[in-house]
Write a structure and sequence with these properties.
A hairpin with a 5-residue loop joins strand 1 (8-12) and strand 2 (18-22). The protein is α+β, with helices and mostly antiparallel strands. The protein is built from two helices and three strands; from the N terminus they run E-E-H-H-E. Helices cover 14% and strands 21% of the residues. A three-stranded antiparallel beta sheet has the order 1-2-3. The longest helix has 4 residues, at 23-26.
Length: 56
C-alpha cells in the first residue's frame, strides 16, 4: 500500500543522480538498497526532472 511522505525514500544511482521511490517498490529481501539499480530506476522519479519547476 503506497502512502505519503513517510513511505518514500531518496536514493542515488551510480552516477550520483537523486531519485525518490516508494519503499515498497524497491525493498528487497536484504532491505533497502543504498544505490539504485537500472531495474529500480523505472519504479522511481528522478528528482532533477521536477526540481526547479512550478510544482515546487
Amino acid at each position: 500500500m503506497k502512502g505519503g511522505y513517510e513511505s518514500m525514500v531518496w536514493l542515488n544511482d551510480n552516477e550520483g543522480n537523486e531519485f525518490v521511490c516508494y519503499l515498497e517498490d524497491i525493498k528487497t529481501g536484504a532491505g533497502v538498497p543504498t544505490k539504485l539499480s537500472e531495474a529500480d530506476k523505472v519504479k522511481c522519479v528522478n528528482v532533477s526532472e521536477i526540481v526547479g519547476t512550478e510544482r515546487w
